[in-house]
Amino acid sequence: MRFWAAHEASERFLDLFATPGADSDLKIRCQQEAAHFGFFTNVVSTVECCYFCFFWIGVMLKKPGFSDEHPGDLRLHPEKITEMFERAFPSDRLARAMREVVEDEHWKSAKETRDAMSHRGALPRYIDSNWKEPVPALYAPIFVTRKPKDHPKDWGPTDHPLQTAIAVHAWLVGATTKLLMWGSQFVHRELGPAELAPED
User: Fold this and answer.
1) Residue 170: what pLDDT?
2) What is the pLDDT of residues 62-98, one digit of tens each?
3) CB-based burial of residue 15 (10 Å sphere; 0-12 exposed, 13-18 middle, 19+ buried)?
4) Which of 32, 40, 70, 179 has a C-alpha 20 to 30 A away from that of 26?
């Protein structure tokens, strides 16, 4: 569900960015922001839901460190769950895949962008003053910072929001495919068909 929502928001953002007059129409600008925010929110949620599922598998297996006794036991994030899996299953390929995902720059960027848009509003946009002629919105000289949580004086390099959305979407497809592939093999091996079969 979260993956589908991320995909839908990405498609909507791309369409809105390419809409004629998108660079000057306030309504379209607001719609862009809603889609942009929805995309990054659901990207982060997709990954977090995968990891929370892995946490519950650890609980089912009664592995040390995997507990659901207290409300605080459920206040987890993917990086923490990765550490738990690495301790419980140090040689498993799923633990390695989980580490690869949380160490990826696209994951870190998606989290930072989601946080900044949640707490600080729309990301500041920069217009390349070297562009003299009108161009379609799809190629508009609009850029946003790579580090929105930094102090404005340290924002540094910027990226085109369309390029960022496309890159993060492609990363999400690869990351979730990897997690689901190794996760399904892990479940089949550790729990087995008999354990997963419904009771009569």
Assistant:
1) 93
2) 998 888 887 777 888 999 999 999 999 999 999 999 9
3) middle
4) 40
Domain assignments of the chain as residue spans, ordered by start: 2-196
Two structure tokens written together for 16? 């809105």
pLDDT at 4 over 90: yes
User: Two tokens at 132?
Assistant: 């003299």
